[in-house]
Amino acid sequence: MLLLLGSFIAGMLTVLAPCVLALLPIIIGGSVSGDTKDKKRPLIIAASLAVSLLVFTLALKATTLLIDIPPTTFTYLSGAIIIGLGLLTLFPSVYARLIAKLGIEQRAQTTLSKGYRDQRKYLGPIIIGAALGPVFSSCSPVYAYIIATVLPVSFAEGLSLIIAYILGLSLVLLLIGYYGQRFVSRIRFASNPKGWFQRSLAILFIVVGLLILTGYDKRFQTFVSTHTPFNFDSLSSKLLPDGRDKKDGVLNVEPYAAPEFVGLDDWINSEPLTKEDLKGKVVLVDFWTYSCINCIRNNPYLIDWYNKYKDKGFVVVGVHAPEFAFEKIKANVEKAARDQKLPYPIALDNNFKTWAAFKNRSWPAGYLLDADGNVRRVHEGEGEYEETEQAIRMLLEEAGADLRGTKQNVTSSNLPISAEQTPETYLGATRASNFQNDKGLAAAPVQTFTPAKNIGKNMWTLGGTWEVKDKMIIARGNSILQFHIAAKEAYVVMGSSTPKDVSILVNGRPASMQGVAGADVNQSKVPVGEYRLYKLIDFKTFRDDAVIELQVPDGVELNAFTFGS
């Protein structure tokens, strides 16, 4: 019952997903086109979209009925229909002259033109809703969970959850269409079928249709997902059952033994691998499917990490669990892997056996394993790329890898690196750089430092007593760290076995008083506990005149600074 309710709520929340936001103008525009006072139009659009989404789901995802038809076919069809509706509204007289010139009677017109022009039969809004059904699919982790995990096991339960999800989505779309129509109906000029408002709607239809046809709607989705603080995937995932023991930090689960790869149909780019074959390596198991736009946007990061760290003991294993029946065909997956330039091993999990063994719930989803084969981090959906790479580096170093010569792209989630930006800076004796003091930084149990004066840009210094280790420094007593940074945002990896507060000053004044405190700072203090990446500073714009000072209590460990601009 809870999952049924969660599916309904997830459907309602899907209207907030980046892949839906670009299509909301079509819902509103379809509701107000023609007769702005016809209250049945929003209802018909929502109902036809619901039926279309249900039929599309069952035909392509729950059966092999249309196994040889790729999803792009339906995307192109949807885009073409939306463009056609826009053109018929924008150029009604030209269309009529063309029909007359060709000698085609009104009764012989196509379903598309007839539906849009004959308001009494409401075929226009039916076509709009039906065209959007395929485009609205796969916009929610809950929807993916139902299709991949529930439906293959219990068709009846899966169908009931899909219907609940679609009802939630349709209800919100109905309200959006209804209130959009109600607002527009109060505008006198909006009801003129030849007026600029109706023509603007027609142009909007054409633009959205072209975006769908060209794939630029996906770029819009990417822009929305990376330039807003709202994380739809994270919110929706909270509605799913989860038995994992979570904790804070980049290593965000209590370690547990990873399951074996089971029930796999075949492998691409590799001979079959087992958990034993991968022992001693840090492994990112990525669940994906090749037509999933979220996965497509996620893959470049996996490629970058694999190429960067494969010689350091890191491997990506892409577990391809098909969302559509045609994605079970090996040749299709091989082509997708070539097109997307995926160089790492890919396993075909057509029956979701390995998916079930990992208790996975969505595409994409990453499980990061340490060298002993234990799961140390789990992330569902897109995003958190800087945290994932930080975790990869931590586990590689934990396994003894030397990462000198490699650089973390901590700003991979759209925090671009400036040429003038302070580089990633490690604090342990082995890899310390840009340390400014009257003596070097050497590993020793306890040392006393006097902070340097006039710190150069990108340089850092210590004051007080510190224990210096190969890969970290640990405060011993009243200790400070000062860093002259050039960046917009500053992060540090640190932790403490017992909760401690680290105070932050910027140019000698508390950070919060200046409005530059990062997300993990409260009243100029960072509550430090779990070992993870903490956001210290958010200047809003790039600055190179700031010296940040951390006042670090006894026992707090610091590993590395990273920056964003």
Verbal overview:
The chain has helices at 2-13, 18-21, 24-32, 40-60, 71-90, 92-102, 111-117, 123-136, 141-150, 155-185, 196-214, 216-227, 232-237, 293-309, 330-339, 353-357, 385-398; strands spanning 256-257, 266-268, 282-288, 314-320, 346-348, 365-369, 374-380, 425-426, 444-449, 460-468, 473-475, 479-495, 500-506, 509-510, 525-528, 532-552, 557-564. The chain is α+β, with helices and mostly antiparallel strands and 565 residues long. The chain folds into three domains: 2-235, no CATH class; 256-398, Glutaredoxin, CATH 3.40.30.10; 425-564, Galactose-binding domain-like (Jelly Rolls, Sandwich). The strands form two sheets. Strands 8, 9, 10, 11, 12, 13, 14, 15, 16 and 17 form a ten-stranded antiparallel sheet that branches. A seven-stranded mixed sheet has the order 1-7-6-3-4-5-2. Helix 4 runs antiparallel to helix 10 and helix 5 (71-90) runs antiparallel to helix 11. The longest helix is centred in the N-terminal third of the chain and has 31 residues, at 155-185.
